[in-house]
Amino acid sequence: MGVIETDVLVIGAGLAGLSAAATLGGDVIVVDREEEPGGLARSDHVSGWWFDRVLHLLHFSDRSVERAVRGMLGNVLQPCQPDAWIETPSGTVRYPFQLHLADLSEPARVACVADFARATFQAHGPSENYEELLRTTFGDAMCEHFYFPYNRKLWRRPLSTLAPQGFQWNLARPSLEAVLRGSFGADGQRAAYNSNGWYPRPPAGAKRRGMQVLVDAWASRVKDLRLRHTVRHIDTGRRIVVCEHDGRAVSFRFRRACLSTAPLPATAALTGGIPAALREACGRLPQNRVRSVALRILGPHGAGQPLWRYYTDESLPFTRLIFQTSFDSLMAPPSGWGLMAEVTERSEDPPVPPAELASEVIRSVRRVGVIPTGSVVAGTHVMDADPAYVVFTRESAPVVAAAARALRELGVVPLGRYGRWEYSSMEQVMRDGLAEARLLEGQVVSEKA
After folding, report:
1. Is the per-residue pLDDT at 214 higher than 90?
2. Can you tell me whether residue 247 is helix, strand or coil?
């Protein structure tokens, strides 16, 4: 078979790649190694239950993204207030922690407010690491009650070894007035960075549910989507990408651009022309995987459950529990409900075997008491995302910048959360996909002029 020609080749059918390809239209091919499009935004269907592969909720701050998503989903997109709780040894509070201190024990609440006031009015230089950034942003007591134990579970590394950059998307210091209002019971939820949420809720009988609905909407607008295509080599000199599909090699030549949403270390390893030292440095970039353990539960749902709960107890394997049927009640049969535990592991460590992990999660879920009497676990399903979290260190920032620059110079454009090796939301990766497509469209117009 000869080389397949295309104007633009997109590697990866996640939200970034799909939104870019759908916007470009025309002569664009998207390749992805998986059986289904969507990447991290996929949803799995298991024995009548639907589960998103990780927690997903849409928030809009970019009008172009909002118009695009609403135009595709219409009334299927429904309001879904991000109701979340945080379990601490000093009480259960609503998320975000710093704006809902009223439900802590009185000593904990007083300490949190006093330390936050000190942190607010003391002069601080630039933070040396992530631990210091948390301490100078929220004060000692908030860190000890929530931020330190939770982030140790999330990152699985000493917080003092993490960089102070890369986390600021959700670490803005609130005003002292807002913290005081929350400590007296006034609702501070309106001040959260993501206080308005949206979630797809198709009618009963729909073939797809969860965030897969959004994925499918984008995918339906891509003219040439090729699944089960694993990229093996990117020859930037000849502008050819070689994939493996069903045991045979398939080659694509891109005339204008190659957009890669594959993880940056993988793209660097596959691209000819990347210096060996830079390729090796990319291979050392730290990352974490997330193991989402989905529990199919038969019986009554616990009354009044939020969308998710954070857990600071470091003896528990999960960082949070996600009540999937609180997002959409039709994501489980009428006789049951869905619960998902998110467990973080360092990618450099061997994964815990799925059966062992599921057993540990079930024991821990029973220990925290979220499965009411009369409900039984009918089955489990483990979904892995690796990478799931980019780990920011002082050493990683210059490597990422150098790799992105080298790839662009060779005609490969890193795109998306893992292509750019950053932490970004669903809205942000769709925004970046739309922006990259418009940039390419603008170049075409300029060339024609």
Report:
1. yes
2. coil
